Amino acid sequence: MTSQRSLTLAFTLLTLATLLGLGASIFIGRFPIAPNKAVETLRTNALAYQLVFNLRLPRILAAFLLGAALSASGMVMQMLFQNPLVEPGFLGVSQGAAFGAALAILSFAASPLWIQLSAAFFALLGLVFSYFLAARLRYGGWVLRMVLAGIAVSALLASGVGLLKYLADPLTQLPAITFWLLGGLWGTRWQNLLSILPVVLPALLALFLARWRLNVLSLGDDTAFSLGTAPGRERTILLLLSVAATSSVISIAGMVGWVGLIVPHLARRFFTANTQYALPAAMLAGGLFTLLCDDIARSLLPGEIPLGIITSLIGALVFAFLMSTQPLKTSR
Amino acid sequence: MTVALLSLHQVAFSYPKSDADALEDITFDIRAGTVTAIIGPNGAGKSTLLHIILGRHIPKRGRVLLRGAPLDAYSRRTLSRTLGLVPQREHVPFDYRIIEYVLLGRTPHLGFLATPRAEDLEQARAALHSLGLDALADRTVTSLSGGEHQLALIARTLAQAPQIILLDEPTSHLDLANKKRVLRIMRSLADQGMTVIYTTHDPESAAAIADRVVLMRDGRVLRHGPLQEIFNAANLSQTYGTELEVAQVGGTNVILLNL
User: Fold this and answer.
1) Domain assignment of residue A267, given as a range
2) B204 with B216: CB under 8 angstroms?
């Protein structure tokens, strides 16, 4: 392939940038540590040690995993639904998680683990509702029915979130809900990160392994069938894997928008539409993008800026730039 | 007599949630290395029949035999290496490069989660080359004209290396030059030993290259057999439900609408 060399170069650069980003993030924060004195500071200063290993490190890894999972899921869903404008939470998953988190904040005195569990549970419930509603709709093909059902279920859950916000104590609970809805990783500890790893890592690995098959499925059921796949079954499995990854990371990070929509577009632009390359690129680029956004979120101002605000701001700007410098290509 | 490559015996099919039979009592044989045109008006069940042969739709009654054995006796993998489909329309929302698009045809020859090897890339290039499409390799799907897209789809199916190629309305949206080019390719594939089966609502594109024709209407086969025997005014008029005339011009059958 003529562009094989440029793809290799692009992957090398992206990997280096990712490693650099992961490394540099350790030294970024409101407690700055000079890189040249890092080892000494960590040995002598107990507070610095605590901060880096118990707060900063899990948060850095969580940010990377969050971005990688949202981007990979976003790309997978775009391929499965043959629609480049789909984002990972659209099947009632994001609003389900929001509802679950708000409910937990109102009823369980906002213990972080309960919020996480409740968010993950209702995210999956949102998907299940969307699925069964789609099966009952009497209009359109599979893709359209899922999209319509996703819209309906999301709206239903969003109204539930609205109700819970209305009922919430405006001094204590409402700020907690609002902050969760804006997304962020300020509360991430090792236990949160470790609790989602057994789901997120195998799911991402499976999606990575299926990367060629995603191309085939993106051509539609008839073609995918004639090329030897079982479109219905394979699509369901891949969809479940991406929803599992998405709802897990949302459960610890809240609603972090735009990553799952914009990064797949970027990845396709620089690594071709072929998922064989674009999917791993989206994982790395999504991880890096979210990590950098989180670095800004925790260090730009004296107080924490919700991560979702940063990702939406930068994501929307990049999106607008991309779409105005390149014609939005749609198929005939 | 030798066993037919494909043999349909009293096949009936109805879509889920529908009482009416989309296909009823379909019986005919297809021999290797021939071109078979399935002709009929819109809604006659031509595409449905093509998907029955592909194994995508399972008949409600009757049997589809491939080399004497029912389709479900073969694995999906074997079937996908034997039967290739050129779909009527393919919605491609992602801008694949043509070489990758054609490379996707190699999927039945790859392991379950494998990615293409160097030899698959060679096969894809060979498929493009055999249709004179080398120049398209680095273009992208959305940049292609309708005719080029149709040719790319055929190249992808050739990369699949099937013995039987099924084409759903391959010429229906092409201009005359592209129509001629695609029909020539289909004929030459059969001359090289491939079995070509295609649907068309345009009898003239059948008259140009088909060895045998299957006339369909309302989910049933009205007539089937060699082109010369079947392709006449009476049969076509009955198939399309309107008065048609057939004239011979320079050895080719031409349809006169007889307005």
Assistant:
1) 4-325
2) no
